[in-house]
Amino acid sequence: MTMIQHRMISQSLVDLVVGTLIEQLPWAEGKLGFELQDDFQFLLITVPCDIGPELSQEERRQLGHQVDRMMPTRDGELTWMLNFTTRGKVVDSYFGGDSRSPAIGF
Fold first, then answer.
1. Helices (H) then strands (E): counts for the chain
2. In the predicted model, what is the mean pLDDT of residues 32-59?
3. Which end of the chain has fewer CB atoms within 10 angstroms, the N or the C?
4. Which residue, 41, 30, 8, 88, is CA-closest to 21?
5. Which pLDDT belongs to residue 50?
């Protein structure tokens, strides 16, 4: 195995995911948090829910499914997590990208 890992998640993919979320949640523009972790193999996205209209659990789940469709997968490892926060605390979370368990985070 080489010392240099393939960057699974590019900046253009991050821009696409964030842009898609902003299309659905225009009030969150400039407020979404995102962090690339695990040497560009994992994307953590945070949506602060206390700055806009309340989202139902189903609406949050559907946003998770949208992210899931855009993100690459890897064998036995997650590639993304979408956290919804209120007053800085996680109130709901969806995750995925493990090709062995495609529905694990829903």
1. 2, 4
2. 95
3. N
4. 30
5. 92
